[in-house]
Amino acid sequence: MKLRYLPLLALALPACTSNPPKTTADQAAATPADARFDRFKNQFILDLWRQNPDYASSQGFHKYDSLLVIPDAAQRQREAAFVAKNLAALGRFAPDSLSPSNQIDLRLLTNELRSQRWYADTLKGWQWNPANYNLGASVGDLLNGRHYQLDRRLRNISDKLAGAPAYYQAARANIQQPTREHTELGVQQNEGGLAVLGAALADSVRKSGLSDAEKQLLTQRIAGARTAIEGYVGFLRKGLPAGASYRSFRIGKALFDRKFALDIQSRYSADEVFRLARQHQADLLRDMGRRAARLFPKYCAGQPMPKDTLQLIRQVIDQLTLKHAPRAGFVDAVKRQIPTLIKFVNDHDLLTQDPSKPLVVRETPLYMRGSGAGASVSAPGPYDTKANTYYNVEPLPTAWTTQQAESYLREYNDYTLQILNIHEAIPGHYTQLVYANRSPSLVKSIFGNGAMIEGWAVYAERMMLESGYGDNSDEIWLLWDKWNMRSTLNAVVDNLVQTQNASEADVVKLLTTQGFQEEAEARNKWHRATLSQVQLSSYFTGYTEIMALRDEVKQREGSKFSLKNFNEQFLSYGSAPVKYIRALMLGR
Ligand code: ZN
Ligand code: ZN
């Protein structure tokens, strides 16, 4: 089965929980059909976990932690049978007989199964994406997880690693004409995985309460897994046999349109989003021009004001971005801002926060680095709502030159860093995921919609600034415009790269001139646009849908409109596609 999960949810570190997981059956069923559907959902999820133990552990379900699924042809057949059986079962529920919330769940499950089918049979990333296979990441999750005591975690790791040679053998057999870009990613991530199976793990084994025989067996299995990973890395590094060529990383318009429909589940088509993004790009540019003209005398006193708007904006931004964290203090700068954001949200009554679930800021673990996301949130799944949520911040690579570092630090200057923290942490991803885990629908928590999740984080930035965060200054708004231009251009670039043959030079030029990005950021975005498809469109699409929905609710409620009520009600449905939340909020 595919695991097309977002980078921000790539890892969860669960802790002990004394409460049994909330199941959909706990809810009072509205009708006999709802009761039947709730039973179906619970059984479906249990079956799903057995086939996807890593996904299960990431969501806080730990019964299958010791299982390793070998990604071979027999497994793909089992998955196809699973999808067929459950799609048939879902087809027997009449949507009209279910509660609105269950109607959404029915749509989500149907979409999920159709996606799985399409990913396996049509997109076939299991053939061309060598980064699909990475045992180090799941061992890292088990090792760091605190659901079980160390000894039990190590026994699970031991059982799992026993299958490592077969796992990587199947991986090698699956690879057919990979892309060069995903091959390089596979090398990098598996080398990170090797680090997980290194000295720290050996140290844990020594200190554990395992018997000598168990320790010996585990040590052998770790050695076997290391050999298997090294073999896989060597296989990938060797390149293709003579006469063979890498396939293009561009999936083309037909696959892109379909993937957009399945992943995003938006009211809009991929073409419509591309058009809306181009419009929004022009709107942002106009606002930036106005603000830059007002700021110019303050920051560029005595200089002639450029006639060219792009040049004017660039010149003002270049002054604003001089204020930034020192290279070695980047992670600390993030850490220091979190309490300010918590206080602002409380003081302005934007939504209710849960102080019992603090956010832990940490340096991104090695095996998660390299995907191009400088910061991400690792949230506990719906079974582990008491576990820590981590804010992963990647320190600047030591290999970077002074110029590379300066470029990156200016991109994440003192203003933009605050916007990043709103987006990733409060009241962005972290806050949204705390609410999602409270949602009574396990299905909505598990099959989170990426566009809703990213859209919320972008909306949260704007909502904070509208509420006076940053004192409504032209400085913070100009840099928000620039930042919002980034998610807008993400959607543009995604489409241009995957369906319109845009080159690296085209993309870097667009992002540095129209997007005012530093070159390092632009090249990083290009890299990411070659590795993912559709995901970069999710920010703009979700944001646009949420803003449109808020306008609709405002119009309907008039003077009775409450921002806090809107925010809390919107978040109360879990990470469902915005179009379904809209249907529930507007009662249609
Ligand atoms: Zn500097
Ligand atoms: Zn995000």
Main sheet makeup: 3 strands, mixed
Q: Tell me, what's the shape?
A: globular
The small molecules bound here are:
zinc ion
Distance between termini? 34 Å
What are the secondary-structure elements, in order, as H or E? HHHHHHHHHHHHHHHEEEHHHHHHHHHHH
Give the neighbour order of strands across the main sheet.
Answer: 1-3-2
The helix fraction, in percent, is 55-70%
- Tally of extended strands? 3
Structural class: mainly alpha
Mean pLDDT: 90
Enumerate the spans where pLDDT stays under 50 for 5 or more consecutive residues: 1-28
Share of β-strand residues? under 5%
Q: Tally the helices.
A: 26
Report the radius of gyration as a whole number of Å: 24 Å
Task: Give a concise summary.
The protein has a domain of 325 residues.
Task: Give a description of the structure.
The chain has 588 residues and is mainly alpha-helical. It has a domain of 325 residues. The protein is 63% helix and 2% strand. It has a 3-stranded mixed β-sheet, with helices on one face. The longest helix is centred in the middle third of the chain and has 30 residues. The two termini are 34 Å apart. The protein binds zinc ion (2 copies). The site of one zinc ion (ZN) has 3 residues, from helix 16.
Tags for this entry?
3 strands; 588 residues; globular; 2% strand; disordered N terminus; 3-stranded mixed beta sheet; mainly alpha; 63% helix; binds zinc ion
